[in-house]
Prior knowledge:
Blueprint: E1 4-10, H1 24-36, E2 41-48, E3 67-69, H2 70-73, E4 79-82, H3 89-97, E5 101-106, H4 110-119, E6 137-140, H5 145-156, E7 160-162, H6 170-175, E8 192-196, H7 208-220, E9 225-230, H8 234-239, H9 241-247, H10 251-254, E10 258-260, H11 266-273, E11 276-278, H12 288-295, E12 300-302, E13 312-313, H13 319-332, H14 337-348, H15 356-371
Parallel strand pairs: 1-2, 1-4, 2-3, 4-5, 5-6, 6-7, 8-9, 8-11, 9-10, 11-12, 12-13
Helix pairs in contact: 7-13
Protein name: DUF2827 domain-containing protein
InterPro entries: DUF2827
Pfam families: DUF2827
Amino acid sequence: MNGLRVGITIGLHHEAETLWNNGIKQNAAFLAEALRHCPQVARVVLVNTTAVAVTDALPWDRDRYPTLSFDAAKDDLDVLIELGGQIDAAQTAYLKQRNVRLVSYCCGFEYVHAMEAVLFRKPMWGEALFVNQRYDDIWIIPQVAPISQSYFEVLRRRPGRVVPFVWSPMFLDERVKGLPNAGEYRAHEGARRLSVMEPNLNVVKFCLYPALIAELAYRRRPERIALLQVTNAEQIAKESVDFIALMNQLDIVRDHKAVFLGRHETPVFLAENTDIVISHQLENPLNYFYLEVCWQGYPLIHNASLCSDLGYYYQGNDADEGARRVLEALETHDAHASWYRQEQRNLIARYLPDNRQLVATYAALLDDLLARPVC
């Protein structure tokens, strides 16, 4: 086969794993789509590094995204990009003796995970920690670089490069096919439902500041707000006495205008339950959730600095500014909802896998990778 044969790792937990439990598997598919547009690439496959069988139960098109076990793929690769599943020392040695380049693609805020593992006794690796020393390159998405780049570089003994973030609406479009209006925002009369959908798994994306923003908006225009919905919060709302005590200080809670829910798929929840989304992040200023919300035309109140031109942006931790943006969306969004949705899609085009500049950057990264000797 002429051209590069590229593998991208994933780590399946079960055969029919959903694409909506985290962004990693979507990330692998989006990167695969971008690399397929690179002129020197002949084939891209997804490589599962766990013992879970690869079957037709997978929620993606295996003709478009061939998915193989490591053993099935290892003799037909020129480049392996380690993204969602880690290979071990023996597998690394096998690839290296075949002259395969190995890239670490970093798309998680791992420095935060390391801090929490140590400080809060949340074991992650224990004595089994394996840090691969034989990467040929480290590729880091922009939102991860500020807090984690040096962490990666020191432990992996190699300089890293910041690479373009890639996203596509392809999974979103598939999921919303059967929903009214394809799940897109539509203008309507009446008070608005505010939603907060942070994962609440760590300090990076936590629901407290969005709840405070909703509270300030509610104090100013209570008649315009029908409900505050906080997803991924059912457990802490039942078990955390501190969270309960904090929430009980808020008028929107005291007035029984707030509910704390379990986990929901973003596209469906947007379509069926939401008018305005409020978000907040620390050290993760760009992620798929923002793009999904904006692509569908919903007003997104957020503080993600790497995409400040999307949605309704507020700076840092300024809850007062966030509340002003909520009120702006309440009063003005419906008047230009169709224009807003199209404008969001025009802006998001810079992240799409077929974006000319994005593809050219990845093609140049591959050329440089192949020009250097194998580590």
